[in-house]
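Sample entry (208 residues):
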Amino acid sequence: MESIWNLVQHERAELVRCLRGLSASDWSVQSQCPGWSVHDVAAHLLNSANTTPTSFAIDIFRARFNIDRQNQDGVDRYRNASSEELLEQLQQAVDRRTGPPRFLAPIASRLVEEIAHGEDIRRPLGINHSYEPEALKAAIVYQAATRKGFGGAKEDLVDVRLVAEDLDWTHGSGTHEVRGPALEILMAVTGRTARPGTLSGSGVSFLK
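Predicted structure, serialized as tokens:
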């Protein structure tokens, strides 16, 4: 658990560094999350970092147990914060180690969120970032083992073998293969679209 938290904190710090280099107009660019700007995704990550088991229980109750509504409420909480204010609070939240109850959101889910949402911000802005191999491995393994009802991709990967060519790493033993860079595989198993031409194999069509 210690190593996963270290990776989460590292990615938070890297995203803060990235955000500090944005122009004023960059913050309003549409992210890869439908309906959310770069500012909105940053606000979501801040809200997530500040979540505790108690605040999660309160927020999900107020949202009538609708996770999408809860997420939007979290974004709206920081809607009027300036980019400078958001950056300051994100910096303060880098080392936090709280979150929803562990049985609902294990620590590895925090890592998936930091990487996937980090890319949701970076890709529309044309920013590339290198991730630690162990971070990508841990994130993909978590997504592959987690049911779709909890945000994972387990059901989609029953007959799929993942091959991360840049890590010399595989996961699963299915007859349908998905081959490509680990980051693109992770984006695919989080329900996002990988960069064109980066993934190959008959298992690509299984990733929805």
